[in-house]
Structure formats: C-alpha cells, structure tokens
Design brief:
Layout (H helix, E strand, L loop, with lengths): L14 E2 L6 E7 L10 E8 L4 E5 L6 E4 L18 H9 L7
Antiparallel strand pairs: 1-2, 2-3, 3-4, 4-5
Length: 100
C-alpha cells in the first residue's frame, strides 16, 4: 500500500487532470471541521496568461487566487479550511507545475 498522509486517500494526492487544460486534479482533499462542503475532489486550473489559479471544489463556487509576479504559484495554493499542504508538496515534488 502506498504511503500517504492524513489529508488524502489511496487515490493519490495530485496528478495531471485528463479532463481540463492546464489543470491538476486533487482527488480527495480533506478539510478542517466546519468546511465539510469543500471535502473531496478539487480541480486546480492554472491560467498562465493571468497568473491565476481557479480552484474548483466538489461543491460550491470556484476560488480565484491571483499570483503576483515573483511569487511562488504553488505556495499560493491556499483556501481557508482546506488542507492543501500535501497537495502543494505533491505538485512541487512531482513536477506537476506548470501543468501546461
């Protein structure tokens, strides 16, 4: 069985998304108490021309994260109540960024 942290299931932490352009799939993201509606599959779409992430949770509205020039786009992946630490590590460690 693969080693995994507390934020993800055996489905893995992050991988290239086959459904969307410039997208990383985080198949099973965990959340803090009170944010249950955000638990599950996330799509992290990078728009290089805008220097922005568009994060699509399993339910609800898309989160937009603008990345300033010189800022680390992977480190900018942050949403209140959502445990994205392992996703950021996986994206950086598996060379998933930039996704296009």
């Amino acid at each position: 069985m693969p080693t995994r942290g507390p934020n993800v299931t055996d489905e893995g932490t992050a991988r290239g998304c086959a459904r969307h352009t410039c997208c990383i799939l985080a198949p099973n993201v965990d959340v803090e108490p009170g944010f249950d509606h955000l638990r599950g599959e996330w799509h992290l779409q990078w728009v290089p021309g805008d220097g922005a992430w568009f994060l699509a949770p399993p339910k609800g509205n898309v989160f937009e994260i603008r990345v300033a020039a010189g800022e680390d786009p992977v480190a900018a992946l942050e949403v209140e109540g959502v445990k994205l630490d392992e996703v950021r590590r996986a994206v950086a460690g598996d060379s998933l960024f930039p996704p296009c």
